[in-house]
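Q: Hi! First time doing this. I have a protein sequence and I read that you can turn it into a structure. Is that right? Here it is:
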Amino acid sequence: MNLYPSIIKDLFFFTPIIISILGILLLFLIDISIPKNKYSLFINLSILVLNCIFSGFFFLTKTKTTDVYILFDGTFIYDIYTEFGLISITICCFLSVFFSYSFLKTKHEYFYVFLALLTSSLLLITSSHFISLFISLEMLSVCSYILACFSDNKKSTESAFNYLLYGVLASGVMLYAMSILYGMAGSMYYMDYQFITSLSSQNYKVVLFFTLLFLVGLFFKIGIFPFHIWMPNVFQNSSLPFVAILSTIPKIACFLVLFRILSIFLAIPYFSQILLLIGIVSITSGNVLALIQTDIRKMFAYSSISHSGFLFLLLSSISNFSFHIFCYYSIALIGMNFLFFLLIDKLELFHKKTFESISGIGKKNILLSLFFIIVLISLTGLPPTAGFFAKLYVFLFLWKNYIHGDIFSLIIFFAAVLNTILSLFYYIKIPYYLFLKKTEDTVKKIPLSFEKDYILYILTILLILLFFMPEMI
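A: Yes, that's right. Below is the predicted 3D structure, encoded as structure tokens:
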């Protein structure tokens, strides 16, 4: 039997991943060939690679004939989760290149890590086998650890080392649980019918326990409570462009994998309720801890945990409706995260990192303050911004589950609404300090220009546009 036609057909769906790998090789050749003045070339090449990935994706969507393709005998899969991951992760990469432009002039090694992170993310969202899942997740983890310490700040190295230690522990637990599930199911193809039927014949309590252990590695990357312990220090000490990447790309990739995995494992009794409980505890703990922070970055780290909790609630019932909500919320979150970090970057150019340090600067920096107010309104979940519909859709999802007989969803619904109100109290601290808090220091005007800061305008318009046109997603 000739396997070459099948292999070539499967490789066709790996076009974006192959382009990314070729981009890394091309960077290496340029790096050893051109000793000086190669940074602008690296940036342009990275943008070219991302454009080629986009082009390859649109070519795939035009030529495919079905919604799901099983690749390499079930080791990988191409489906709607893969497609959304390709779009959203590539958008994050575009934004991160523009965000990192000034930083990259002295750190050209970043491009290797950047494209390796992209490659591992794309491999992760296509995985449907324990080994391919674990290897791609570890590739993503290694890239994340490197990015976390990609700074001249010594504290970032300490934070990255702690991140590494916790990550190794999470990976070990995940690998152990994989081996147990493999022993019970007799298969590593977790999307395979044999895997499902074999587990269904086992004691559901044992299966539930080891399934949760298996998901620990993904929970760690998402930053769900109690696996969020690495986030505050990494967010506070790492370079802002890389924090923006870590808060979006690994999170989206791991959520997409969870959507695919949990479409099978939700058949385990009480699993859905456990996921709802983890989600609401993450939301509550993130909000409560954010309230007591004095550092803006750490406040946003705990805020990010809260938003992860909202997305996590959608995993309690996998359907087209929940996935559509996830897509909208993710795009809104990408816009909000990058806009917030771009604004923080402007403040930190003038050594303003705490709430006290931004006291009274709002009156001389009206435009900057306006951007802040819009993104904070969206993060809270108020109109007229994308954050309003993002959280409203989650509430509708919970209410729909309650209508279909899940009483626990009603409790989570009210708890989520109360948490949304609670989040307003720490988000409003920034406008309060900008405009109402007085300072004895001389207030300087922070320069903004459309030519250099056009990304701020684009993301702000996007957040407002998604409110008036939510059907765009």
